[in-house]
Amino acid sequence: MHLAVTFTNFGPYHLARLRALGVALRREGGRLTAYELAGSERRYPWLVEAGEEPFDWTRLFPDRAVELLAASECSGAMREALERDRPDVVAIVGYSRPESMAALGWADRRGLPTILMSESQHIDHPRVWWKEAIKRRRVRRCAAGLVGGPRHRDYLVSLGMPADRIALGYNAVDNKAFADAADRARRDPNSRAGLPVRPYFLAVNRFVPEKNLVRLVRAFARYREAAGEGAWDLVLCGGGPDEPSILAAIEASGHASAVHLPGFLQAGEQAHWQAHAGGFVHPSLMEPWGLVVNEAAACGLPLLVSDRAGCVETLVPDGAGRRFDPNDESQIADCLGWLAGLPVERRAAMGRFAAENAAEWGPERFARGTLEAARIAIERPAGRKSASFLAMGATTKGWSA
Question: Which of 45, 242, 250, 302 is deepest in the core (most CB within 10 A)?
Answer without folding.
Answer: 302
